[in-house]
Write a sequence for this structure.
């Protein structure tokens, strides 16, 4: 483990760090309160593209966590920013929910199934065979393929659900086209987040519960990284990865005093 840097800005994952299945994790409210007390810049990052930042603020507030809308950065928002930079005023065929469609509308994109510039795949709880078939045909016709995140499964009360990464693999198998994935672990999502709060890598930390998304992306973006053990990666699995977080903590409760 490395020595601890002085941290001015904090990035944190949401699920597995602040909340689990809609319930706030121990220390999460204290961590957010300490950030406000110390006037630290921060963003909550999530690969979830289903909800808008406003929706997520309401859901977090329902669990007792007060996070401003402007402090939430989703893979949908990062994807919209990427497309706006790459091809302003373009068009897209979208498989996803309000979080993604709203983000694309806000950058002036036209959502269409007629000769779009892009096929954009996000998260939805109701993946449609008809929509997937349409996406395959549009990609075969020349549309470029973008995905919001690589997660193969997502959580639900009943157990894992197929997610964006799994459906992207299906489309790739059918078309031969590999999507450009904007969300974690792409460090682009971190760079766009850091630009949003005017953060510098030398004085920014990432808190996450997944070695294969949060931690590796934080490392590649040059950040200090904190793995918490309240989510996907158990302590026993840390040594199986070829890279290491800067620090490992049992939960976000153990990071409060570091702010």
């Amino acid at each position: 483990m490395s020595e601890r840097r002085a941290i001015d800005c904090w990035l944190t994952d949401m699920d597995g760090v602040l909340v689990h299945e809609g319930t706030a994790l121990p220390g999460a409210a204290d961590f957010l309160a300490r950030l406000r007390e110390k006037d630290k810049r921060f963003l909550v990052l999530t690969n979830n593209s289903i909800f808008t930042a406003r929706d997520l603020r309401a859901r977090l507030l329902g669990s007792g966590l007060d996070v401003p809308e402007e402090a939430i950065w989703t893979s949908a928002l990062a994807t919209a920013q990427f497309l706006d930079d790459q091809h302003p005023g373009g068009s897209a065929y979208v498989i996803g929910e309000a979080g993604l469609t709203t983000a694309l509308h806000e950058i002036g994109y036209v959502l269409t199934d007629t000769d779009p510039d892009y096929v954009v795949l996000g998260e939805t709880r109701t993946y449609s065979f008809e929509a997937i078939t349409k996406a395959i045909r549009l990609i075969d016709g020349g549309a470029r393929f973008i995905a919001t995140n690589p997660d193969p499964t997502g959580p639900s009360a009943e157990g894992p659900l197929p997610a964006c990464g799994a459906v992207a693999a299906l489309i790739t198998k059918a078309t031969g086209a590999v999507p450009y994935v904007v969300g974690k672990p792409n460090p682009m999502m971190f760079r766009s987040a850091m630009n949003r709060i005017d953060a510098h890598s030398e004085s920014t930390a990432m808190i996450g519960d997944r070695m294969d998304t949060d931690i590796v992306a934080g490392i590649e973006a040059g950040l200090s990284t904190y793995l918490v053990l309240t989510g996907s990666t158990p302590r026993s699995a840390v040594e199986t990865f070829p890279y290491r977080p800067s620090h490992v903590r049992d939960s976000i409760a153990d990071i409060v005093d570091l702010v």
About this structure: The mean pLDDT is 94. The chain has two domains: 9-47+184-258, 76-181. The domain at 76-181 is CATH 3.40.50.1000 (Rossmann fold). The first helix runs from residue 28 to 37.
